[in-house]
Write a structure and sequence with these properties.
With 123 residues, this protein is mostly beta strands. The chain is 0% helix and 50% strand.
Length: 123
């Protein structure tokens, strides 16, 4: 069964850190562009970060640039999203998604989606 599973969400204080993980089963992530997306209550889903399948080029939304880092761990078939200096506005459900052999992560075209992990930033 092909699936993505996110983990690492939880409650963090403003200024704190969390590391999200996106693990794949049934396929190898290194052949896929992997994107992280988030959706807060009452808001539209937005792209957070993407790592390409070929040369590992990374992309970040302006709102997280300099605070979040996306990376691959091919040995564990996992992609991480390190989130530092968290802000209350980062509170959302975070999803990872995969698109085969791609440079970018258009949310309407992703092949596989995880079910999400909740991130709450609050004091």
């Amino acid at each position: 069964q092909l699936q993505l599973v996110e983990s690492g969400g939880g409650l963090a204080q403003p200024g704190g850190s969390l590391r999200l993980s996106c693990a794949a089963s049934g396929f190898t992530l290194d052949a896929y562009a992997i994107g992280w997306f988030r959706q807060a209550p009452g808001k539209e889903r937005e792209g957070v970060s993407c790592i390409s399948s070929s040369d590992g080029t990374t992309y970040y939304a302006d709102s997280v640039k300099g605070r979040f880092t996306i990376s691959r761990d091919n040995a564990k078939n996992t992609v991480h999203l390190q989130m530092n200096n968290l802000k209350p506005e980062d509170t959302a459900v975070y999803y990872c998604a995969a698109l085969w052999s791609a440079y970018v992560c258009p949310p309407g075209n992703m092949d596989y989606w995880g079910k999400g992990t909740q991130v709450t930033v609050s004091s």
